[in-house]
Amino acid sequence: AAGRQQQATQLAAAQKRHESLLMFIGIRKDDPDSKIVEMAHNAFDFFDDDSSGQLNMFELDEAFRKMGITLTEKELRALVDEVDQDGDGMIDQEEFANMVLETIYQMKEEDLNHTTPAQLDIVKQESHYRDALASA
Fold it and tell me: pTM for the full model?
């Protein structure tokens, strides 16, 4: 039970770091996916100090320090392990964009889990209205 609690706490802390990153780079959860990916790519380029096309541990550490967040080496390694899909120990632009999108989707899902049926009706109506405007 204690192990599960610790894991839940670590996941919540990781989610909070990801959300802080999104706020820092100006991404909002209601932005369209195409804008989110574009902004994620721009942020990646900003954080990629050596223009290698990959974020190493030092660059990640610097990125979070710019946001006022200090991570331990263990936390940085856990972040890389979580996001690094190809196992090279670095985060490339696509992996970074996927992490940003996944964070947005999790935030939206969490919002839906705390939404009343009446609020869901309003969201559906707004969505239909936006779709109608977009197709006009």
Answer: 0.70
